[in-house]
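**User:**
My hope is that you can spare some time for a protein that puzzles me. This is the protein in question:
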Amino acid sequence: MFVDRADAARKLLDRLPPFDPAATAVIALPRGGLPLADVIAQALHLPLDIVLVRKVGMPGQPEFAAGAVTDAGGVAVTVNPAALEAGLTEERVRAMARDELAELRRRRALYQGGRAPLPVKGKTVLVVDDGIATGATMRAALRLLRAAGAARLVLAVPVAPADVLADLARDADETICLETPAPFFAVGMHYQTFDQVSDAEAAEILRRHAR
């Protein structure tokens, strides 16, 4: 159990390997990953940015990811195999993903304010979130960063299911996770305080690091 996201970030710091500040970037999944990445980037004197990936919720179960979508470098959709097992087709997931693009682009304008994304080509990228449930969003983020030229991907999260983490290890060069509880129900159950991170808070963290 973590007190809050800042507590989880400090505990993650104790497990992270050393990084070369000149060749490393911290990339958070907004919004929940940003408060953790903020603490980590400040402590390690590393630049911080986000990767914008939007979860595509299952019909009637919006918290369960049918897939994920990003609009960086063109629209790309990742389909969660569990969605296909539940009866959805890949075409249906892709159609639902298109509905998420407007929100994705709104967040890009709000969070980055016209700033260019932090370059990751040739760098070690520390990818941070506050936890992982299905892994669909994180998988899409890792693949996007790899396609953008990241030389090494280090996935760092406080909590995740062991099987999902093992699956994500195929897309990351190193995985660091503090807790892998079983059974696993929801990320928020492992925090005493798990308030929603607002758009304003996320934008302010990014503005501060951009300065």
